[in-house]
User: Fold this.
Amino acid sequence: MSAIDPAKGNAVHDQATRGHRSTLVSQSVRLLCKVVSILIVARLVAPSDYGLLAMAASITLLLWMFRDLGLGTAAIQAPDLSPGLCASLFRAQLILGIALMLITCATSPVVAWFYGQKQLVPLLLFSSLSFLFIGIAGLPRTILFRSLRFDEINLIETISAITATTGMIVAAALGAGAYSLALFGVLADFIWAVFAWKYEPCLKLTRASRENIAGLAKTGRGLSYFQALNYLSLQAEIVGVGQYLGTFSLGLYSRATQMLALPTTHLAEPLSQVTLTALSRLASAPEEFKKQAASGISIIAYLVLPIAALCVAVPEEVVKILLGSQWTEAAPLLRWLAVSAALSQVTLVAQSIAIAVNQSHRLIFTAVVTLMALIAAVVIGLPHGSNGVALAVAVANLLLFLPRLMWRLQGSPVCVSDFLHPLAGPFVTALILGLGSFGGRTFCPTENYILRLLTAIAGGALFLGITSLLSTKLRNEWRVVWGHLPWAAKTPPTLTTPPADAL
Assistant:
C-alpha cells in the first residue's frame, strides 16, 4: 500500500508533466542559442582562441565533474532535508566552490607551462569564477528541484542561456577573443546564482544549527565516482581512435559523437532529471513510483529513438545536412554510434531510479564493467579502423543493456519487465520510422541530398500514418506523449511548493 496520499501522488505526476513541458521549451531555447552562437561567434573569434579555450577546458571540465561532489543530487533524493542539513549543505557546497576556484587558479601556471601558452593563466583565473557561482547557487537550486518547481528552474535556464549567449556575442564583437567564449560559462553560472536566490531566498536556512551530512556525502561520493567513470569511458574511445588512427579519424569520430550528444544534452538528461526529482518524492509509494518511472521512460524514448532511427536509416543525408559534404565519411560512424547513444539515452531513467531509492552505489559497479567492456571493444575494433571501433562499441553496449538494466533496478519497485514495457511503443515507432525513411531514400533517384532526406522523412511519416490506422494502442500512446509536449493543454498546477517539513 502507498505510504502517501493518492492526491499527492497525482499532484507529483502533474508537476512532472509540467516539468517535461517547460524543460522542452527551455532546452529548445538553449539549443537555438547554441546554434546562433556558433553561426555568429565563429566569424568573430579566431581558431587560435578556440584552441586556447580547449586547453583551459582540459582542467576546468575535469574539476567541473566534482563541482558539488554529488551533494545536490543526494539532497534532492533524500526523504527529508531539515534546516540543519540545509545549513551544512550550503556551507559544504560554498566551500567546495571556493576550493575548486582556488585549485583552478593554482594550477593555471602549470597548465600554461604544459601547453606553452602564457595567455592561459589569466583565462583560467577568469574561468574559475564559475565554480564560485556554482557553490553559491547550490542550496537554492537543490530546494527548487526538491519542491518540483520546474517552471522557475527552466525559466532560469532560459534566462541564463539568452543572457550568456548575448554577452558572448557582444564580447566577441568587441575583440575579447577567448575571453568571450569563457564569458558564456561564467555569465550563465552567475545568472543561475542570482535567480536561484531570487526564487528561493533561503537565507534563514543557512543560519540554522548545522547537522552532520555524512549520509548525503556518502551518496554524493558514489555519484561523483560514477560520473568520473563515465568520463573515462568516453575518453577510452577518443584516446584509442586518436592515438592509433590519427587526427583525421578522430575528427570524424568526435564530430559524430558530438552530434549524437545533442539529444542526450537537450532531451534525455534534463528530462531524466525531472523524473529523478519526481521519483524521489514517490519513493514510499511503489505503485505511484512505477507509474512515474513508466511515464519518464516513455517520454524520453519517444523523443530520442526516432532521432537515432533516422541516423541509422539515412546517416549520409543527416551528416551532409548538419555538417556539410566534407564530412560524408562520418556517415558510417554515425549509424553505429547512434545505436550506442540510443541505448545510453533510454537507460538514463534506470539511473534515476537507482538514485531515487538510494541505490546509487550500484551505478559504480555498472560504470566499472562498462569501462572495461568499452576498452576491450576499442582494442578489438581498432584493427578495423574507426568504423570497427564504432561497431564494436555498439555491440558492447547492446550486450551490456540487459545486465546493466537488471543491476541498476535491483532494490527498486521497478523490475526489468516494468522498464521494458514502456519501451515497446517507442521502439516500434522508431523501427517503423527507420524502415519508412530507408525505403523513401532508396526509391528517391535524385542526387540532391536535401531532397533525399525530405523524401526519407516523408516515407517514414507515411509508414507511421498507416501504423496509426492499424494500431489503436500506439495511437493512444502517441496521444499521451503529445500531452507532455509544450503546446498540449495545460494541467492545472496542484502542487507548487511542498510544506516546509517535506523539504
